[in-house]
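Hi everyone, sorry if this is the wrong subforum. Our group has a chain we'd like a structural model of before ordering constructs, and none of us has done structure prediction before. Sequence below.
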Amino acid sequence: MHVATAQNGALQPNLKSLGLGAPRTTQTQEGIATLAELFTGSMDINRLRRLALRVLAVQQALEGADFIQVFEGFLAAGQSQEESFRSTQRVFRGAVLRGGSAFTKDAAYLTGLLGVHTLLRIAIRDNRPELVGHLFAGRLSLGDTVRLAPLFESGWLQGPVHLPAWASDLRLLAANLAFSAFITRIPLDVLDLDVLMAFADEHETDASGGCGPSERK
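Answer:
Right subforum, don't worry. Here is the predicted structure as tokens:
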């Protein structure tokens, strides 16, 4: 995804700087890449868990945990010694090993994922499908996709030449986003397997033509 947005930006006729990366766009660009992993089935639960653990480790380091303490935290979370060491190295790249500082880019993956996913949901909900194209037209931030809309509308900025399959079919994208938005509303904290099975048994009986609750009394 980084290559696609960089190439799209470089192909802009009037603002080729959109092909260049900048700290202000890192979070959005990493969010697009992480969302692409999810939508294409390239991210498994272990990869997602590693990202989450590194975000927690960054917070621990910023709060004063040193290299050994962060390393032990990864071990306690179930990572192997080798993986824990590699993860801790990422957290302390260029930082003081005694704690109090960290390389915080890992936090951009999940924060960026949430931001990009939310932008796409709002774009679909508010009938603004053009924002999907804006997002891929160069190395942009979330805010750029909205603030630069007049320049896209006038033709001064061009839409993306390279667009991933999962984002080019807006109907498929809308279905994925709508389902993910709906499914997160199911409160798993008040459910267990017994409750779910009782619910399923009751509704399967009704669906097969059995008596409803009022008819059984």
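For your construct planning: Residues 27 and 108 are 5 Å apart (CA to CA). The chain has a mean pLDDT of 87.
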